[in-house]
């Protein structure tokens, strides 16, 4: 397949969580591939900085302050993106939070807060994007962000794991419902990726924590946000035109039976 299959020129992408980490790297890469990128994040200043970097590199970008757990805000942000560019071709729901507590210590407030962002926030984005893409009539690509934690139990990550497992089901279910409209729905399930969020949860000794995580991978390293951004680009582009309902496990092989 020619490399032009990865060209997103003329297309519009909305990225949540675009202020930092995987979301930021994805926004920059999709812009480099030619997309007009809408950078959305609760951290409005961070989203603006990502958009500024895209524009400084000659790309096209706007930023939006967005709390993904608020359905009204999500609907308004999608509408703003469509109003600005006249279309929406790619929706990447990357915004997420992490909470650590044992099962016995998990409170209603803990669970509700993580589900509101990591599951409901993705659901709202999927719903709004799918409605727009169906009305447009020329398909589109919706990409969610689940996690390697869906494949194995992880101590103290009940809330995070439950939300990401729900995203897994959302992805596969939505794919079956909107495929007839030419809309593809896929997920990326990262392994341990070096981001500001994971840095906060890896423990006091960052170096030891990374070494421990790297030992779990046959590749001998932890991931970088750019690793995941390239996976999103693949799913956003025509290179994955016959791919839907799939979970792309970009995890360094940590779940391989080796």
From TrEMBL:
PANTHER family: DEHYDROGENASES, SHORT CHAIN, OXIDOREDUCTASE UCPA
Pfam families documented for this protein: adh_short_C2
Organism: Streptomyces varsoviensis
Protein's name according to its UniProt entry: 3-oxoacyl-ACP reductase
CDD domains, A to Z: SDR_c
Keywords: Oxidoreductase
Classification via InterPro entries: NAD(P)-bd_dom_sf, Sc_DH/Rdtase_CS, SDR_fam
Family recorded in the similarity comment: Belongs to the short-chain dehydrogenases/reductases (SDR) family.
């Amino acid at each position: 397949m020619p490399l032009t299959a990865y060209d997103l020129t003329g297309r519009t992408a909305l990225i949540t969580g675009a202020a930092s980490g995987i979301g930021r790297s994805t926004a920059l890469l999709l812009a480099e591939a030619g997309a007009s990128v809408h950078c959305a994040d609760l951290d409005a200043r961070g989203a603006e900085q990502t958009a500024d970097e895209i524009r400084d590199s000659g790309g096209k970008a706007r930023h939006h302050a967005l709390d993904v757990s608020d359905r009204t805000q999500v609907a308004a942000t999608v509408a703003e993106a469509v109003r600005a560019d006249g279309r929406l071709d790619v929706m990447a729901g990357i915004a997420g939070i992490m909470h650590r507590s044992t099962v016995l210590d998990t409170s209603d407030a803990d669970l509700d807060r993580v589900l509101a962002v990591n599951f409901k926030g993705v659901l709202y984005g999927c719903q709004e994007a799918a409605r727009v893409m169906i009305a447009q009539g020329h398909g589109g690509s919706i990409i969610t962000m689940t996690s390697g934690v869906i494949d194995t139990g992880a101590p103290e990550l009940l809330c995070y794991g439950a939300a990401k497992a729900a995203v897994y089901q959302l992805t596969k279910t939505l794919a079956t419902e909107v495929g007839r409209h030419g809309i593809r729905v896929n997920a990326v399930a990262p392994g341990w990726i070096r981001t500001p969020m994971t840095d906060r949860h890896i423990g006091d000794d960052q170096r030891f924590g990374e070494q421990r995580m790297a030992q779990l991978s046959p590749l001998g390293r932890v991931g970088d946000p750019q690793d995941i951004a390239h996976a999103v680009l693949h799913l956003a582009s025509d290179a994955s035109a016959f791919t839907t309902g799939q979970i792309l496990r970009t995890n360094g092989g940590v779940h391989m039976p080796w």
